[in-house]
Design brief:
mainly alpha
Length: about 150
C-alpha cells in the first residue's frame, strides 16, 4: 500500500509542478498574449518560456514541496488550504531566494514583469490545488488498511 501511495504522490507532484509552471508561463506571457498572432516564432517563445518556467519551478520547489508533503502524510493533513497556502509560500520563498528578474531583463524582448511575487504565489496556489486534487485529499490513508479508498 505504501509503494502505491509513493507513486501516487510522485505522479501528483510532477503534475502539480507542471500546472504551476504552465500558470507561471501564462502569467509571464500575459501582456504579450493580446498582441500574439499566429506567428510560429511567437508560439515558440511561449513554449520556450513554459519550458524555462517548468525547470525553474521544478528546481526551486521540489525539495520544499516534498517536505510539506511528508508533513501532510505524517499528520493526515487533507485540507485544501494547507496545500494552497503551502504552494503560495513555496512560490514566495523561491522568488525571494532566486530573484532572476534582473538577469532576464536584458535578455528578452518581453515587457518587464512588475508583479513577479503575485505571479509565483498564484502559480504556487494552482500547483497546491492540483496536488490536493490528485493526492492531497487522501493524505495519510495508507497508514490505515481498513480506510475506505
Amino acid at each position: 500500500m505504501f509503494i502505491t501511495r509513493f507513486f501516487v504522490i510522485l505522479f501528483s507532484l510532477i503534475f502539480a509542478l507542471l500546472a504551476a509552471s504552465i500558470a507561471l508561463a501564462i502569467g509571464i506571457m500575459a501582456p504579450e498574449l493580446v498582441t500574439m498572432s499566429s506567428d510560429p516564432i511567437e508560439k515558440f517563445a511561449f513554449f520556450a518560456i513554459a519550458f524555462f518556467s517548468t525547470s525553474f519551478v521544478g528546481a526551486t520547489a521540489f525539495v520544499p514541496a516534498v517536505i510539506l508533503i511528508a508533513i501532510a502524510e505524517t499528520f493526515n493533513i487533507r485540507s485544501i488550504f494547507y496545500y494552497a497556502i503551502g504552494g503560495a509560500l513555496i512560490g514566495a520563498v523561491s522568488w525571494y531566494m532566486s530573484d532572476i528578474s534582473l538577469q532576464l531583463e536584458n535578455t528578452t524582448d518581453l515587457s518587464p514583469i512588475t508583479y513577479g511575487l503575485q505571479l509565483v504565489a498564484a502559480s504556487g496556489i494552482i500547483g497546491g490545488f492540483v496536488y490536493w486534487l490528485l493526492a492531497g485529499r487522501k493524505a495519510g490513508r495508507w497508514k490505515d488498511p481498513f480506510a475506505a479508498t
